[in-house]
Design a protein that fits this description.
With about 290 residues, the chain is mainly α. It is about 70% helix and about 0% strand.
């Protein structure tokens, strides 16, 4: 049939660049020559486009990789963690929604739950991520030679306690985490208590024990009060914004340059609140001077 012969002709289409001559022209319908010319034109156009496409593919294989927006895919889990850290530090845990975190991170809403589950688990994951900073403070404490007779012992303990936190607050990557610690952990919430027990209570216990060794004349309960007062001074320094106004613009909030002043303040407060008992000889000299 004419249709079968036409399919046979299509199967014998020559490659691009060769002349096309439809076979069996005399046996086709009189209108076949015009159709053959049209078919020949379509085949040549198709072959030419296929050659162009193949060349484009070949060029793309040898093209150097793009940079910028076509670079490696961003870590979306890390983006969610950083977004939550920032928003919790700025606005508070209970105010921020999962939708706001997703928008800040630039990810689909469902992805937050996929990686972290409920909001309180995301809150906990932030502190797990920064757990190494607690290890650094404990390492600094272990490096202190705790000699109660050495007047440099107490300042060194306080430096190990405050120094890493102040450095973290002054860094671009740790700024929001330091603010989050100062803002959220001392609210009476279930989420904060869980983080305190898991991460910060062991740190506090270690520093209270070290302070008790450095101040052996005080009871451990007295030293625990001293630790709490020292912690309050540190956290207020991290979170305070009024100092610029109160100093009439001369001071900068969370200024790391005032770290020695903060250490001296805490050390002076501990020594004043927990003074060493005077020896009997000094007491006798004091009585003679007043008589």
């Amino acid at each position: 049939m004419a249709g079968d012969r036409l399919r046979d002709s299509a199967e014998k289409v020559p490659p691009a660049g060769e002349d096309f001559e439809p076979p069996g022209r005399s046996r086709l319908h009189p209108a076949a020559p015009g159709f053959a010319r049209l078919f020949k034109k379509l085949v040549r156009t198709f072959n030419r486009r296929m050659v162009q496409r193949a060349a484009a593919v070949a060029r793309s294989l040898h093209r150097p990789p793009r940079r910028g927006n076509d670079g490696p895919r961003p870590d979306r889990r890390q983006a969610i963690l950083l977004a939550a850290e920032k928003l919790f530090a700025q606005h508070g845990y209970h105010v921020v929604t999962i939708r706001q975190i997703a928008e800040e991170a630039g990810v689909p809403l469902a992805l937050v739950g996929y990686y972290f589950g409920p909001k309180h688990e995301l809150f906990h994951a932030i502190f797990a991520h920064w757990g190494h900073t607690i290890d650094e403070r404990l390492d600094g404490l272990r490096a202190v030679r705790n000699d109660p007779a050495d007047p440099r012992t107490l300042p060194r303990i306080i430096e190990a306690f405050t120094g890493p936190v102040l450095a973290l607050r002054a860094s671009a990557e740790g700024e929001y985490y330091a603010l989050l610690v100062a803002r959220e952990l001392y609210h009476a919430t279930e989420e904060a208590d869980r983080v305190l027990r898991g991460y910060f209570d062991p740190l506090a216990e270690a520093y209270i024990d070290a302070l008790h060794i450095a101040l052996p004349h005080a009871t451990r309960s007295q030293v625990a009060w001293g630790y709490q007062f020292a912690l309050g001074a540190l956290l207020h320094h991290l979170n305070d914004i009024r100092i610029e106004r109160l100093s009439r613009g001369e001071n900068t909030r969370a200024d790391p340059a005032v770290a020695p002043t903060l250490v001296n303040f805490i050390v002076g407060g501990l020594r004043a609140a927990l003074p060493r008992p005077r020896s009997p000889q000094k007491k006798a000299q004091s009585r003679r001077q007043t008589s």
